[in-house]
Description:
The strands form six sheets. Strands 1-4 form a two-stranded antiparallel sheet. It has a two-stranded antiparallel ribbon with strand order 2-3. Strands 5-6 form a two-stranded antiparallel sheet. The relative contact order is 0.12. It has helices at 2-18, 34-48, 65-81, 84-97, 119-132, 140-163, 185-201, 205-222, 254-267, 291-305, 331-347, 355-367, 412-416, 425-440, and strands spanning 182-184, 223-224, 229-230, 233-235, 276-282, 285-290, 370-371, 378-379, 382-384, 390-392, 395-396, 420-421. The protein contains 14 helices and twelve strands. The protein starts with a helix and ends with a helix. Helix content is 49%, strand content 8%.
Amino acid sequence: MKRLSFYLVLSLAFVSVCMARPKKKAPKNLIDDPKEMAIAFAEDEMKLFPELWIYDWGSRPFFGYSQGVGGNAYLYLYAETGDPRYFHYAEEWCDTLVNEDGSIKKRAMEAYNLDLIRGGWVICQVYRDIQANPELVGGKEAAKAKLKKYKDAMEDELIRQLRNQPRTCDGGFWHKLVYQHQMWLDGIYMASPFMAAYGDTFQKDEWKAEALQQVITCWRHTYDPKTGLLHHAWDESASQRWSDKEGHSPNFWGRSIGWYLMAMVDILDYIPEGFQSRLNLGHKDTITISGRDTLIRYINTLVDALPQYQRGGLWYQVIDQPDREGNWPEATVTTQFLYAIAKAVNKGYLPADRRQIAMDAFNGLQQTPFKYRDEEFVGPMLTRDAEGRLTLGQCCAVSGLGGSPTYRDGSYTYYINERIRHDDGKGTGPFFMGCYELGKSK
């Protein structure tokens, strides 16, 4: 009872902070150096959310996808800086939610929800880090126990779900059991990097191939050559109210494309040169492909289209209509593109001149003034409050399609009226990773 009361009090406190507005007097340029910005921002987030389950305004320990984003972001910083605090921030979350028998608390496998796979990527990276340095968790004996329960969690919970995940006729995972016949761009990021990482960790190439299958199937059904963008979702049955006769959702939601681009760039960490796999095309047709080359081609095609929709370094909630009345610049899509483009340049997937697109985003977040939706504040997305803490403003809290009792129709009006908040974890983790990547490629 005391524990429940603690969570309730803590939750109410954080909701109050979340609703606070950024201060109106912010310096025009907060931090010029991207690496310095990355560390400063990550440290401020750890102070705001002292445990990972609280990250993204969590009210209770939960195997949530936002916490998964944060976990991997801090593990990224651990890999880059060697600071063990970042590792422990993520590992303590895993340790709390994974029982000794490998079962995961607060996770319903029967929902076949790809969002509830996302945290597996954190578990997998923690597993790899412990393998590389058992002293992180107290030595070889402690490491042995941790490795066993984390491997059991991945295999008995997450891989088991994915083996049975409902699919479209050509092999695409349904986003959730309740969203029958539907692939969402969001789901690619939630599951495919984990599958690729798991396949690489345990030498199971079939899971690398599955990760590629999902990315490529989704591209084939959502890519729009007219705009160069991807529709938020595709309904194989074309029966949803939001669906056109081809099954496409009617608009291009910024963050969904951000999820997808990040997924492609991150999956390539685990796909070696020359890796060949079979691609299911439906109707029992399969071909052998070089998935790595395919993803790099997709990354270039998508990034080539993005600058035309950028305004002052920022991208908008409905990304292809930045100048339409009611649309607004959105922080999470901007930070996700910043990260994905900067990393893709550093990895050699994109030409070096594409770094400027990410640099424009970095500068725009600090310098481009605009009127925040639903408030009087006019200024940049990134501000510093009276105590000196950095805040990322104007983040879309959530968007989706279908559902009940309120049906989300995917219209322009629906997207631009979704809830906004500050320091949303779906943008903050990509932001400090993206800043660090920019700093690596000066």
